[in-house]
Amino acid sequence: MTESRPYTILDLLTDQSESTQRQLLASVEKKCNGETKSNTTVLSSALAESGPLSSYRTVVSQSVVDGIFKTKCRLDEAGTTDFLVVTTRIMKKYWEAVCFLMFSHVHNWSVLGVDVRDQSTIIVPPDLTQVETSIKNYLMSLDGSGKVEIIRSRIIPCDMFNAGFHTRQGGISQLPPLASMNMLHTIRKPDPLIVIAENRRRLAVAADFDLDLLNVARTEHGKKVWVMGRDPEPPLKYDGVITDVPGVVVAAPGADCCVILLADTRTGACGAVHAGWMGTVAMAARETLRAMVDNYGTDPRHVHAAIGPSVGGQCFDMPISDAQVITDLDPSLTWPSERKEGWVHTNLPGANAVILQNEGVPKENIDLTTALCTACNKNMFFSHRRDSIPFGNQLGFISCRKR
Ligand SMILES: [Zn+2]
User: Fold this and answer.
1) How many other C-beta atoms are found inside a 10 Å radius of the C-beta of residue 300?
2) For the stretch 325-363, what's the b/e string if a residue is b when 16 or more beta carbons lie within 10 angstroms of its beta carbon?
3) What does the similarity note say (predicted)?
């Protein structure tokens, strides 16, 4: 078994003096020790058509941030996660700051700062406090893939609430299963927080809400609810979030799981809840609605609800015993799976509609037309069932415009 070496990224961008470049290249070649050079990408300001660099993969760029973003995207697609950046000692801290922001938990990275002799030009290391801003500005300047698309429910009055679901279009996440509007940073996705923040910024612009007032549920497939205003700090994990403050945006992520938006048309209180099969069985939607009743005086008869894009019953099955609670709600919500003995197809959006109706929300106030199947509509939505890991997440969001 050969020992796996990290993938090398050679920085020939930040010090372009010939002497420095020669020394950095020598240090990489020494490490390669005659092995294939396919394990190295050179960041350079110009394509090397001849000379010692010509046998390396080169990413041509005029900026480190652009160079590392392009390199990372290519290597993410190849599934490469271990990186070693080779640069000069004076640029080491800068590179560490860049890598910290641009890589995620799936990546293992380190920076080697090589001592170079006879530096012919004086290199002033970039201001580290500016690294984050320069990356943000760069990501902001990228063309999104397509246009941000927002699906709005006709049942939630739009003069009173700003509510909707978005599709996977319009963001900057590059890895195909996350492309392009991935809204969630997790330990299994190569999207760093700063990319998620840019995707969320684009949603805020398109949907016309204040990004600083966006609160996305930190889901755990349970039924805990963060009552904003009552609990100053959110629980560590929670699937429902509610508010009665105009302008505050509450949201929940999904990729097959239902995201349900609740709008109290009398008080302006609103909520968002994430319910996959576990959250549906745990009655997360009921808990969220009850939290609105208990804390904001909501009357379920005035609640309008939209159930967002989620996996349709024809594309989703689960063990018959796990689905019993749902079958008990209404036997037509489950039916035998032809794929697996002892499993049943389960209509999760329908189940959540029944859960809300049982709490007193009128049937005609519940919008299921927004519950498009995530698994069937590959160009529109992320789907865990369809894409396996990693997969992207879309959001459902709601805020009250006025009371
Ligand atoms: Zn489907």
Assistant:
1) 20
2) ebbebeeebbeebeeeeebbbbbbbbbbbbbbbeeebee
3) Belongs to the purine nucleoside phosphorylase YfiH/LACC1 family.
Residue at which a domain ends, from 141, 175, 193: 141
Q: Ligand 1 centroid vs 8 CA: distance in angstroms?
A: 42
Whether residue 211 is found in the same domain as residue 109? no
Cα(402) to centroid(ligand 1), Å: 36
pLDDT at 1: 44
Ligand 1 center to 287 CA (angstroms): 27
Q: What is the CATH number of the domain that holds 346?
A: 3.60.140.10
94 and 168 inside one domain: no
- Profile the chain (403 residues) by mean pLDDT over runs of 10 residues: 78 91 92 78 88 89 95 94 95 96 96 85 83 97 92 98 98 94 93 97 98 97 96 95 98 97 98 98 98 98 98 97 98 96 98 98 98 96 92 97 75
Q: How far apart are CA 64 and CA 71, in angstroms?
A: 10
- Global confidence as pTM: 0.95
pLDDT at position 37, please? 80
Q: 251 and 216 in contact (C-beta within 8 Å)?
A: yes
| C-alpha 311 to ligand 1 mean position (Å) | 6
16 and 75: one domain? yes
Cα-flanking dihedrals φ and ψ of residue 117, to 5°? -100, 155
Structural domain harbouring 199: 150-400
